[in-house]
Amino acid sequence: MTIIPHSLTRAVKNATEVSPLLQDPAALRAHSRPQLRRYEISTLAPNGDIVDSTHIAPALPLFENAFCAFTRRSMVETDCGPVAVEDLLPGDMILTRDGQAERLTWKGCTTIVPGRPDARGRYHRLIRILADSFGMQTPMSDVLIGPSARLLKTPIHLRTLAGGNPLLTSVQEFVDGMNVIETAPPTAVQVYHLMLPRHAVIRVGGLEFETYHPGANAFRTTSPAMREIFLTLFPHLRDLHAFGPQAFARTGDGEINAIAS
Prior knowledge:
- The chain is 13% helix and 31% strand.
- By secondary structure, it is α+β, with helices and mostly antiparallel strands.
- The strands form seven sheets. A five-stranded antiparallel beta sheet has the order 2-1-8-14-3, with no helix packed on it. The protein has a three-stranded antiparallel beta sheet with strand order 10-9-13, with no helix packed on it. The chain has a two-stranded antiparallel ribbon with strand order 4-5.
- The protein is globular and about 45 Å long.
């Protein structure tokens, strides 16, 4: 017996709806599959060799934050003068805030499209810090930085929380639409991050930024399997504890989430 729908609207809905049982299984798997991203790393091996490798890993904040701090042509202070981040090699000596030269042990790179949202609707906008934004000649010229960069500077609205101590603060906290602005070019952009033997503050474009550290709370809600995948991006480290202590207290989501040792 044929059942006639009660209305034309219902008939159209019946015709266009597809039962999950009838959908293409491959399409269902593709829909539920997490987005992946290509990550490129250069590591200093114990014998002094430079080891380059490419990894495909989840496009999750935990992973992306390890690569999205500095854009191409960001000038990093080394013992030989400023060097563009893309030209740095593991083994190069990077100057830290305390005047020491530390060996670069790891450099990560990935590609983002700031003007295009990812599968989860997230944007990876770059931040442009205009000349003199933080005082005379600070910086001397515009600095274009990645979304996961952190400055050793405490914004006004966090100074009470910091108790007068310097904080490593996400660059997004300084966006004011005038001196520090977001920009979202529609084309692909290569972004980088750097690691030294210890967490430190280095000068990039005349400003003080942190080297990479996942943060004290990064793995609290991360599964053991995801931690193992994450650690494969850092073959020079034996385990997650090898990231060591943080050089300064750090902000996260508007509040301090780690206290420097």
